[in-house]
Design a protein that fits this description.
This protein is α+β, with helices and mostly antiparallel strands. It has 3 helices and 7 strands. The strands form 3 sheets. Strands 1-2-3 form a 3-stranded antiparallel sheet, with no helix packed on it. It has a two-stranded antiparallel ribbon with strand order 4-5. It has a two-stranded antiparallel sheet with strand order 6-7.
């Protein structure tokens, strides 16, 4: 299991818990990695996942994890759940204007009141606990810096 990148480049000073990295593997393709040894091929080709798909997966993954404990209390520890995220980027603005999330849960046999409670619990859990959604909705500041080109205290900002 790889817990740090190979030594082609020096580790940045900010490297630590929560750091991820991506290595170029070819034209417009990367291999995304985390410190637990997970590798994800990033691109638009066969067997690769696009950055937009990763964004949508991060959103629904966080929603599912944030709501899991609360839903387990209502639906049982072994309940099924499938989350979906839909949306395509707007070509003119080069960004996603809307990402629609949907969740499928086993609601058969529940009363209308119990279903309403599940919907409320899910929504509250995601609103309170989904760091990814809170970050996206809050418009997080993103900075960019090319290491080795300036002092570490003066990050370059802008679009990539």
């Amino acid at each position: 299991m790889h817990t740090v990148p190979d030594d082609r480049f020096e580790l940045p000073g900010n490297f630590g818990p929560g750091s991820v990295w991506a290595d170029r593997t070819g034209e417009r393709t990367l291999k995304g990695c985390n410190q637990r040894g997970v590798e994800i091929p990033i691109g638009h080709g066969e067997g690769e996942i696009s950055p937009g798909e990763l964004l949508k997966l991060a959103l629904i993954g966080c929603a599912g994890m944030s709501s899991d404990a609360n839903l387990s209390r209502r639906l049982g520890e072994d309940h099924d759940m499938r989350l979906w995220a839909h949306g395509t980027s707007d070509d003119e603005q080069n960004r996603y204007l809307t990402i629609a999330e949907e969740v499928q849960l086993p609601l058969e046999g529940l009363t209308a009141q119990e279903i309403a409670a599940v919907v409320t619990v899910f929504g509250r859990a995601v609103a309170a606990g989904c760091t990814v959604e809170r970050t996206v909705a809050g418009g997080a500041e993103v900075t960019h810096r090319v290491l080795g080109t300036e002092e570490p205290d003066t990050p370059q900002t802008g679009q990539a």
